[in-house]
């Protein structure tokens, strides 16, 4: 009788185990096949989004790169880093000595998203008010050209961070080659006192703007500042105003992106600049259907006390 009862019991246990294993397999499959947000973003230079930039860099069609530091950085640098821009009777690269101690403990860490080879990074890396500049870009040629064109920074390729980033390090500067949407404070070595968005946000697809801003919020220190520069295609045909990159981001969109975030203390428009200064500029843009174009500059202050993100 005992043996007779054991067989149905064993059969029931076997069925239960089969059902349980099937459930676990389905759950595991769901975990494996469901892509993370990061995996849905471009990683390689031949991805749909980066290939356009890779092609332009390959033929040196990079008209957005300037030979001098951005005029808004010069004009408003002291709004984000007090003492950054010296008075007229001070030497270049100097700063107010009372802001720093003997070990430069008052110096700031600065982050450049989608940095390209902007000379703003060199300008800041050589300033006594700056402890370190960190830039990230998806195009390796941009970073290598920056290193080659600025030998005084002594930039060398030193390491690979995981499987996602290559790292180049020099004097007060670190460059990361990889996908911006994969970056976090572990990759960057911590958070930043200042972020300089030198019209980087206008280069990305509008559908990615909220993700882009979310990452900046995770990288800025409490009490830190973001200097934000955008392009506003203020007038023209509907097609021209929505075209890009550079994509138009006006005051309404800036308010939408930053105005209601729980880590933002304040959002202030500092100034705007008419990009139709010369007849050549005006002709270039009107041929594309843009009748009015402005460059906008904002400073975004992060709260000193903020909830964990």
Q: Describe it for me?
A:
This protein is an alpha/beta fold. The protein has 10 helices and 9 strands. It has helices spanning 2-33, 50-58, 71-80, 119-125, 140-149, 185-188, 209-219, 238-242, 251-258, 279-286, and strands spanning 108-112, 130-137, 156-161, 165-170, 173-177, 192-198, 220-236, 264-274, 290-302. Strand 4 (165-170) and strand 5 form a beta hairpin. The relative contact order is 0.11.
| Biggest β-sheet description | 9 strands, mixed
Derived from helix and strand composition plus strand pairing, the structural class reads alpha/beta
Please give the count of helices: 10
Give the C-alpha Rg.
Answer: 25 Å
Helical coverage, percent range = 25-40%
Shape: globular
Strand content range: 25-35%
- Number of β-strand runs: 9
Distance between the termini: 63 Å
N-to-C order of helices and strands: HHHEHEHEEEHEHEHHEHE
- Overall average residue pLDDT: 81
In which order are the strands of the major sheet placed?
Answer: 3-4-5-2-1-6-7-9-8
* Low-pLDDT sequence parts: 1-42, 89-103
């Amino acid at each position: 009788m005992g043996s007779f009862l054991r067989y149905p019991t064993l059969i029931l246990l076997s069925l239960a185990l089969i059902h349980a294993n099937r459930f676990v397999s389905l759950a595991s499959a769901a975990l494996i096949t469901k892509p993370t947000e990061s995996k849905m973003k471009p990683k390689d230079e031949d991805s749909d989004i980066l290939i356009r930039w890779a092609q332009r860099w390959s033929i040196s069609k990079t008209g957005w790169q300037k030979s001098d530091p951005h005029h808004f950085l010069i004009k408003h640098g002291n709004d984000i880093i007090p003492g950054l821009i010296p008075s007229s009777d001070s030497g270049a690269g100097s700063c107010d000595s009372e802001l720093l101690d003997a070990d430069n403990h008052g110096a700031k860490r600065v982050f450049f998203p989608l940095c390209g080879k902007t000379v703003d990074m060199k300008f800041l890396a050589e300033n006594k008010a700056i402890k370190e500049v960190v830039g990230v870009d998806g195009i390796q040629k941009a970073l290598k050209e920056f290193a080659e064109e600025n030998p005084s920074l002594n930039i060398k390729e030193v390491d690979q961070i995981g499987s996602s980033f290559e790292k180049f390090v020099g004097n007060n500067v670190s460059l990361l080659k990889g996908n911006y949407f994969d970056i976090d404070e572990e990759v960057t070595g911590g958070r930043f006192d200042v972020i300089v968005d030198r019209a980087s946000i206008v280069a990305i697809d509008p559908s990615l703007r909220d993700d882009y801003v979310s990452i900046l919020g995770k990288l800025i220190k409490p009490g830190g500042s973001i200097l934000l520069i955008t392009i506003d295609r203020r007038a023209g045909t509907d097609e021209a105003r929505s075209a890009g990159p550079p994509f138009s981001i006006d005051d309404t969109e800036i308010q939408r992106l930053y105005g209601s975030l729980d880590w933002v203390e304040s959002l202030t428009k500092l100034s705007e600049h008419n990009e139709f200064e010369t007849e050549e500029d005006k002709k270039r843009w009107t041929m594309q259907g843009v009748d009015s174009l402005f460059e906008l500059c904002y400073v975004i202050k992060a709260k000193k006390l903020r909830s964990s993100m």
